[in-house]
């Protein structure tokens, strides 16, 4: 077995590599991009329920993300109970009213104008599922995590991709501060909410902001 600095052995298993030819690799990259480029942040949801199992598969996929020291410092709370969603909306709107009315700088509010957001968060009740994502910090039953934000951020990216390719719409919502979510989601203090993600089918008449993504030449530097 390979040696590590402490001298303790660590077990290994054979890799199960994805075997893809060079031609196929480009075709797959393009095909995946065609799926992913249609993902939009959606604020108008249909109340139609999400098929059983979709959220579970998405969470399993999220949990394949790499994480610092493989601590897997994430917890996903799927809220479907209408009364709990109502409480979540009420508490989030209280924070958002403060944000839009007082806390946000003029510069920040100007940056949000093209998105048309305000303190109203009806989607927190209307979407059939709201996934609250928590970072799990050191606690009685949890080890110290490393690169926590990075790890959970990657996991959320995979979660959004899984839900999108299953035909569901999502909204990456970030109420601030988020402490109220521990109470509503019945989570201990070592868990800290970092995303609130309404999930569901888009409303039939859903519209989204007319915004563009940067061109490859603006974001890719080749050296
Ligand atoms: N959390 C607020 C404000 C907000 C902030 C950013 I940065 C956005 O991209 C969108 C909204 C809200 O959810 O309305």
Automatic annotation (TrEMBL):
It holds the Pfam family Nitroreductase. SUPFAM superfamilies: FMN-dependent nitroreductase-like. This is Nitroreductase family protein. The keyword Oxidoreductase applies. Keywords: Flavoprotein, FMN, Oxidoreductase. It comes from Streptantibioticus parmotrematis. Residues 37-201 form the Nitroreductase domain.
């Amino acid at each position: 077995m390979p040696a590590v600095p402490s001298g303790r052995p660590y077990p290994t298993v054979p890799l199960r590599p994805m075997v893809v030819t060079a031609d196929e690799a480009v075709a797959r990259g393009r095909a995946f991009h065609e799926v992913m480029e249609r993902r939009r942040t959606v604020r108008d949801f249909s109340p139609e329920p999400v098929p059983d199992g979709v959220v579970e598969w998405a969470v399993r996929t999220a949990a394949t993300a790499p994480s610092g020291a493989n601590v897997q410092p994430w917890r996903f709370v799927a809220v479907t109970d209408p009364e709990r969603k109502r409480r979540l909306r009420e508490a989030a709107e209280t924070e958002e009213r403060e944000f839009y009315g007082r806390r946000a700088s003029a510069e920040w509010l100007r940056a949000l104008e093209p998105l048309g957001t305000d303190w109203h968060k009806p989607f927190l009740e209307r979407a059939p599922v709201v996934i609250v994502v928590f970072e799990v910090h050191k606690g009685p039953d949890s080890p110290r995590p490393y690169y926590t934000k990075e790890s959970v951020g990657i996991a959320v990216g995979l979660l959004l991709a899984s839900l999108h390719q299953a035909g569901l719409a999502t909204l990456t919502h970030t109420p601030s501060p988020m402490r109220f979510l521990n109470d509503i989601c019945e989570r201990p203090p070592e868990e800290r909410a970092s995303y609130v993600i309404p999930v569901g089918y888009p409303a039939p008449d859903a519209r989204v902001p007319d915004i563009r993504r940067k061109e490859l030449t603006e974001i890719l530097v080749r050296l």
